[in-house]
Amino acid sequence: DIQMTQSPSTLSASVGDRVTITCRASQSISSWLAWYQQKPGKAPKLLIYKASSLESGVPSRFSGSGSGTEFTLTISSLQPDDFATYYCQQYNSYSLTFGGGTKVEIK
Amino acid sequence: EVQLVESGGGLVKPGGSLRLSCAASGFTFSSYSMNWVRQAPGKGLEWVSSISSSSSYIYYADSVKGRFTISRDNAKNSLYLQMNSLRAEDTAVYYCARPYDKGAFDIWGQGTMVTVSS
User: Fold this and answer.
1) How distant is the alpha carbon of residue A84 from its chain centre?
2) Which of A72, B12, B37, B116 is deepest in the core (most CB within 10 A)?
């Protein structure tokens, strides 16, 4: 199975900060990577698909980049609603795998 | 409105069985593969199983292979997960999810909690 490693696991930031989360795949997944946001008690919400495509309705402050084995999710200016946990997920193989998550906390 | 609604969760003893259901509405269910994803309390997301639109292709995570069975009824717009030989480590919220763009999940249900405990 393809392993997905996210870093950092926790991130403390302030409103207005630029935030970057990294996701590394154990083997090349081309651009078959998604990013999700999850808040406590809620289902995950798709933010980015195919590594850099913004899901409809998602604010443009969210962006994704990368291909192969290294990917990043960037929030250009952190807003109060963005404090949540973020997950990457590969869908290059039929055995889908998620990263361990990055919790974005208020500094 | 595009919607997925799970049901069937509950408390079950180790070794027991449970059947989860996921009712789909607002989209052409028979055109989409479907998936189950779970999340143990305080933990991350884990993909469990997927089924193609016509049930021709079925895949499982190693952690549930041989114990769980995914199925669907396109006439009833419903997805199922039969869970047998349940273990404490199967305790989780179980989500059904619809994939967009090959495997990114754009639609999720609200989740149903499964607790395996004596």
Assistant:
1) 11
2) B37
* Interface size, chain A vs chain B, as Cβ–Cβ contacts under 8 Å: 61
Pick the residue from chain A with its C-alpha nearest to B5: A43
- Note down pLDDT in tens along chain B; length 118 residues: 999 999 999 999 999 999 999 999 999 999 999 999 999 999 999 999 999 999 999 999 999 999 999 999 999 999 999 999 999 999 999 999 999 878 899 999 999 999 999 9
Å between A49 CA and nearest CA of chain B: 6
Fold of A4-106: Immunoglobulin-like (2.60.40)
How many other C-beta atoms lie within 10 A of the C-beta of residue A28?
Answer: 11
- CB atoms B45 and A101 under 8 Å: yes
